[in-house]
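Next up, a specimen:

>
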Amino acid sequence: MRTSLPMGLMAALTFGSATFAAAPIQSTPLATATTTWSGQPLNLPQGPIELKAARVVMPVGTALAPHKHPYPRYVHIESGRLSVSNEVTGVTREFGPGEFIVEAIDQWHSGRVVGDEPVILMVIDQAPPGVANVVQKPQP
């Protein structure tokens, strides 16, 4: 059975005599960046990389100790509000639902959940295989 597809319809799947039409695919840009949020040029590590992606849930009251990321880290805020303070630039910025963060590279920073809602993040790291992308700041 052949079906004529209306304009904008991306695909139709046919099984036996039934036809199931897929809805149009939608793409919503989340971010375009050439720098981190602290203004650093964005460069990928040289050589092989390992991509790691994780969904992170930060409960209300969570505060992250100072740390840094030696390699690129990208974060999408699904819900909640996150305050990030950069020790190098002295800038503190709050991020909320739908925002996309290109994390500072090799700059000490800390974060904390703001408000009465947990923060849910999608985190993507690009680092050499087997290398952690979070370094905790040594305490004096």
Observations:
- The radius of gyration is 20 Å.
- The first strand starts at residue 12 and ends at 15.
- The CA atoms of residues 15 and 79 lie 39 Å apart.
- Residues 1-15 have pLDDT under 50 and may be disordered.
